[in-house]
């Protein structure tokens, strides 16, 4: 009898222990969401607003565009450098807008901050397209910039403006800009109707320019964007053109944009060429999504509009095919997973892949639930809940449920990267060190093993290697550098799991 009571007590304690461990290990998605959106304030360029919350950052790049008599103030620095690359910036704006379109209802008080972040990007993209027949591709000489370790407030490298036009086209950057403006217009449709109309009208104009004057922007602006943000294939801009048309159709419902997608989707390249560790490698496009390849995003986005209709082909089958390329148990899996469970694809800054693909899984799961759908991967059928489970697993890993117990979001949890590859974060702030820090004078701050003095709260870095190991060192750029396009889709994911943990 006494032995039975003892065993019962031990069992009860074990159950309570598991509950406590689970509670301790559970993530505060609301706090992570707030920090995720705050990060964008640390990436702002230009004259900072009075409600700026990341106060160690100050005004910077106040003469951008002056070399062309343009006003190109504002926008975002893409990563840990001080260049404004419009291609990834536009993609980040598109993904922030898509996050709000799908999951803004769950953001609570952070919704307004998300809208502010979208508008900061959209306002700059409007300036970048203000002259008919021209689209800004980048601001800041990237070769000179990457040769320095300077605060954005101190920059004395050339702020060259790189622009594509009718004779030197750049369809990928132009079409992604059109997508960003269109998606943003949908976000502001109710609250700021006039602004929304301005955005969608500009999106139409920019899309027409991108389509009429076709060409790769690497051939037009060269070292202004390459090798940093190049689409390497011969017709690699076709996915951006189709992506832009898809967003314009979603926003306007105009038949011509649907016809454009229908006519061009069969002609998209079947393989994407990307730079991996200095070598060009090919991958099947249906399973790709990020700043340089939009195929999986196009299929998921349009599946939400045509699922269970006569127009479901080829979008729903291709979206299903994408899902089957990601699920760990799928016989068609084309990604790999670390021992701790982090998704990996070839290419630098792996968190961009883990998060962007998780966002698509989560969005597609909502579309499937709405239509009582599932995904057939041959040997098994995946319910929407399985897609959500994979996405949640990736986010939980990023926030600290991994072999190192490391949160890969700066400022979240007790253990996070302290030496991220980011100039503004690693150099003393203007408040702490008012004197100008010249180009090479920042090198000691780059080389030191000391933690960064300024917390870039909410930044998600490139992440650990495929063995779940991570070297917290700012010289390890591939793993320690944050980017706007890593955080942008994460905002939507965190909002959903905040509401449905």
From TrEMBL:
Entry GO MF terms: cellulase activity
Family matches, as PROSITE patterns: GH9_2
Source organism per UniProt: Gossypium schwendimanii
Glycoside hydrolase family domain ranges (all copies): 29-494
Signal peptide start and end residues: 1-26
Keyword Signal among UniProt keywords: yes
Catalytic activity: Endohydrolysis of (1->4)-beta-D-glucosidic linkages in cellulose, lichenin and cereal beta-D-glucans
Superkingdom of the source species: Eukaryota
Keyword presence, Signal: yes
Keyword field: Carbohydrate metabolism, Cellulose degradation, Glycosidase, Hydrolase, Polysaccharide degradation, Signal
Pfam families the record matches: Glyco_hydro_9
EC number: 3.2.1.4
Biological process terms in GO annotation: cellulose catabolic process
Active site: 421
Assigned protein family: Belongs to the glycosyl hydrolase 9 (cellulase E) family.
The name this protein goes by in its record: Endoglucanase
């Amino acid at each position: 009898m006494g032995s039975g009571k003892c065993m019962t007590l031990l069992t009860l304690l074990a159950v309570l222990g598991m509950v406590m461990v689970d509670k301790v290990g559970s993530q505060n998605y609301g706090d992570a969401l707030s920090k995720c959106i705050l990060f964008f304030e640390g990436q702002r360029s230009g004259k900072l607003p009075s409600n700026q919350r990341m106060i160690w950052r100050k005004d910077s790049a106040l003469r951008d565009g002056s070399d062309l008599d343009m006003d190109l103030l504002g926008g975002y620095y893409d990563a840990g450098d001080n260049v404004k690359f419009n291609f990834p910036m536009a993609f980040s704006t598109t993904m922030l807008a898509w996050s709000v379109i799908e999951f803004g209802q769950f953001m609570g008080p952070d919704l307004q901050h998300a809208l502010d972040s979208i508008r900061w990007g959209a306002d700059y993209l409007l300036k970048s397209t203000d002259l008919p027949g021209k689209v800004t591709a980048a601001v800041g000489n990237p070769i000179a910039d990457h040769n320095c370790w300077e605060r954005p407030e101190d920059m004395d490298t050339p702020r060259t403006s790189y622009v594509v036009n009718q004779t030197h086209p750049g369809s990928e950057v132009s079409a992604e800009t059109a997508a960003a403006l269109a998606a943003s217009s949908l976000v502001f449709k109710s609250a700021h109707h006039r602004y929304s109309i301005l955005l969608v009208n500009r999106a139409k104009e920019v899309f027409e320019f991108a389509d009429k004057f076709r060409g790769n922007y690497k051939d037009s602006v060269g070292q202004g964007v390459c090798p940093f943000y190049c689409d390497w294939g011969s017709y690699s801009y076709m996915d951006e053109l189709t992506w832009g048309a898809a967003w314009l159709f979603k926003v306007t419902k105009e038949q011509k944009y649907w016809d454009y997608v229908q006519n061009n989707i069969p002609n998209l390249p079947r393989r994407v060429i990307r730079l991996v560790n200095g070598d060009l490698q090919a991958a099947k496009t249906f399973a790709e999504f990020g700043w340089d390849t939009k195929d999986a995003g196009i299929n998921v986005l349009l599946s939400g509009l045509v699922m269970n209709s006569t127009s479901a082909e080829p979008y729903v089958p291709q979206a299903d095919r994408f899902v089957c390329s990601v699920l760990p148990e799928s016989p068609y899996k084309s990604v790999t997973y670390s021992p701790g469970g982090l998704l990996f694809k070839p290419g630098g800054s792996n968190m961009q892949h883990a998060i962007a693909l998780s966002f698509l899984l989560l969005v597609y799961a909502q579309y499937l639930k709405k239509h009582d759908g599932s995904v057939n991967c041959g040997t098994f059928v995946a319910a929407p809940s399985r897609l959500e489970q994979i996405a949640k697993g990736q986010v939980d890993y990023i926030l600290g449920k991994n072999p190192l117990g490391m949160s890969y979001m700066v400022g979240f949890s007790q253990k996070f990267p302290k030496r991220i590859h980011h100039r503004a974060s690693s150099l003393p702030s203007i408040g702490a060190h008012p004197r100008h820090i010249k180009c090479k004078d920042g090198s000691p701050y780059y080389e030191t093993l000391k933690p960064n003095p300024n917390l870039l709260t909410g930044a998600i870095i490139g992440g650990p290697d495929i063995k779940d190991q991570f070297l917290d060192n700012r010289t390890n750029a591939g793993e320690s550098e944050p980017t706007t396009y890593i955080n942008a889709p994460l905002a939507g994911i965190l909002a959903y799991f905040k509401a449905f943990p």
